């Protein structure tokens, strides 16, 4: 199973380093950031499973950043702030934060709440394709998530099975992000509660990827969109435009 990747966002270098070290010691991959620009840079380069976002980032406002992130992405966000009054917490929840932790906090309590948010995310379809009422455009193709229809550049509809459709949603929600077979399997739950051995999971994903390639690639043997990422898994290597319905 993939190790969760957390993005720790705080403009206080000492606090940021302390949190990164603490989370790494407790089994996470923890990446640092100090501003919205750094958040976006990290998100453009790698998968992130949860953002731990400080509310007061110098001249930037974490609540406003959370609102902008939530408008574009569906990944979990935990706000951290010295502002503990009810109205401050409600402001965070109203813009889509998954949890709000007040400073000063017990690190073990923070750890438990991060794990709880990640568990809730895994119980829902994960890797950011929960919002299905949207239209995606990619390389001339169109996928209508509400109608569950994919249309080729020449205008004909291509039928997809349920699993092929779910795989496409995962890929569309994560363009240019290398995904392991284990991550894809966890998102799709193609093995039934994850009980199959990792080798069987990998084979199931390879077969599913092959079927989807046969329907959306001009040459499935030399795929241009759904590419194999050596030593990782797969990556959807084209730009994706999303429009909410």
Please characterize this protein's 3D structure.
This protein has 245 residues and is α/β, with parallel strands linked by helices. It has two domains: 119 residues, Rossmann fold, CATH 3.40.50; 111 residues, Orthogonal Bundle (Arc Repressor Mutant, subunit A). 40% of the residues lie in helices and 23% in strands. The protein contains eight helices and 15 strands. The strands form four sheets. A five-stranded parallel β-sheet has the order 2-1-3-6-7, with helices on both faces. Strands 11-10-9-8-15 form a five-stranded antiparallel β-sheet, with no helix packed on it. β9 and β10 form a beta hairpin. The protein starts with a strand and ends with a strand. About 7% of the residues have low confidence.
CATH class of the largest domain: Alpha Beta
Radius of gyration: 19 Å
The H-and-E topology, N to C, reads as EHEHEEEHEHEHEEEEHEHHEEE
Number of strands: 15
CATH architecture annotation name of the largest domain = 3-Layer(aba) Sandwich
Largest sheet: 5 strands, parallel
Q: The CATH topology of the largest domain is what?
A: Rossmann fold
Q: Segments where pLDDT lies below 50 for 5+ residues?
A: 123-131, 190-197
Number of helix segments?
8
What value does the average pLDDT take?
84
Number of domain modules: 2
CATH superfamily of the largest domain: Response regulator
Distance between the termini: 33 Å
Strand % is 15-25%
Side by side, the strands of the main sheet go: 2-1-3-6-7
Shape: elongated
Percent of residues in helices comes to 40-55%
Class inferred from helices and paired strands: alpha/beta
């Amino acid at each position: 199973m993939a190790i969760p990747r957390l993005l720790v966002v705080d403009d206080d270098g000492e606090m940021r380093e302390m949190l990164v070290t603490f989370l790494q010691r407790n089994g996470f991959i923890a990446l640092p950031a100090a501003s919205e620009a750094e958040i976006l840079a990290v998100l453009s380069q790698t998968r992130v499973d949860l953002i731990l976002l400080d509310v007061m980032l110098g001249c930037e406002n974490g609540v406003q950043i959370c609102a902008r992130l939530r408008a574009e992405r569906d990944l979990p966000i935990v706000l951290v702030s010295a502002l503990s009054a009810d109205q401050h917490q409600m402001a965070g929840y109203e813009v889509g934060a998954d949890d709000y932790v007040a400073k000063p906090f017990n690190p073990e309590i923070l750890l438990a709440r991060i794990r709880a948010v990640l568990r809730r995310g895994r119980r829902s379809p994960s890797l950011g394709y929960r919002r299905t009422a949207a239209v995606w455009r990619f390389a001339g193709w169109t996928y209508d998530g509400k109608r569950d229809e994919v249309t080729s550049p020449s205008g004909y509809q291509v039928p997809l099975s349920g699993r092929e459709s779910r795989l496409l949603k995962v890929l569309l929600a994560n363009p240019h992000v290398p995904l392991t077979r284990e991550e894809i399997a966890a998102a799709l739950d193609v093995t039934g509660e994850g009980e199959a051995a990792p080798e069987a999971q990998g084979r199931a994903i390879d077969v599913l990827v092959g079927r989807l390639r046969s329907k959306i690639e001009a040459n499935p043997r030399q795929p241009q969109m759904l590419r194999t990422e050596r030593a990782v898994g797969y990556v959807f290597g084209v730009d994706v435009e999303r429009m909410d319905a």
